Amino acid sequence: QLQLVESGGGLVQPGGSLRLSCSASVFPLGDYAIGWFRQTPGKKREGVSCISSSADYTYYSDSVKGRSTVSRDNAKNMGYLQMNSLKPEDTAIYFCARDPGGTCAGYVIGDRIVLSEADFDAWGQGTHVTVSS
Fold first, then answer.
1. Checking DSSP bridges between strand 18-25 and strand 10-12, what pairing results, if any?
2. Which strands make up the sheet holding 18-25, listed edge to edge?
C-alpha cells in the first residue's frame, strides 16, 4: 500500500518556525518530486513548494517564498519543509505528495508557475499547522 506520512505540525506563535517532514514507505521517494500543499476550510488546496527528484530544482509559491526551505534526504526516504516567520494566514492542513514526473513542472498562469494537483499521484493524510498567539 502506497503511503506518505506527514509530521511536524502543531501550534506555533506568529514569527515562529516549524519543520514539516514527509516520510515514504514501500516505494523509493527519490524517484519522485515531492510537493507540499496546504488547505484551509472553504478554500482550494494550494501548492506551496516542491523539490525535484534530483533536488536540482525547487519551487515556492509567492505566499511562502523567502520564508520556507524545501529539502529532501533520499537515503532516509524523507522530504522536509522548513517554515520560518510563520503568520496566522499560514494556518492550514499541510500535505505532501509525490510527482512521478520528478520535475515539479506545474503550469504557467500569467507570469507565475503554479503546481498542478493532477501531477501528483499519491498524497499523505496531512498535518495540522496552527499559527496563533
1. unpaired
2. 3-7, 18-25, 78-83, 68-73
52 phi/psi in degrees, rounded to 5: -70, 165
Least Cα distance to 93 among 49, 51, 36, 52 occurs for 36
pLDDT confidence of residue 1: 64
- Provide the sign of the torsion angle of the four alpha carbons 110, 111, 114, 118, taken in this order: positive
Per DSSP, what are the bridge partners of residue 3? 25
Q: 16, 131 in Cβ contact below 8 A?
A: yes
As given in the structure block, the three cell numbers for residue 60 are 515556492
Backbone conformation region of residue 38, classed left if phi is above 0, alpha if psi is from -120 to 50, else beta: beta
- Indicate the pairing of strand 33-39 with strand 10-12: unpaired
- pLDDT tens, residue by residue, 33-72: 999 999 998 999 999 999 999 999 999 999 999 999 999 9
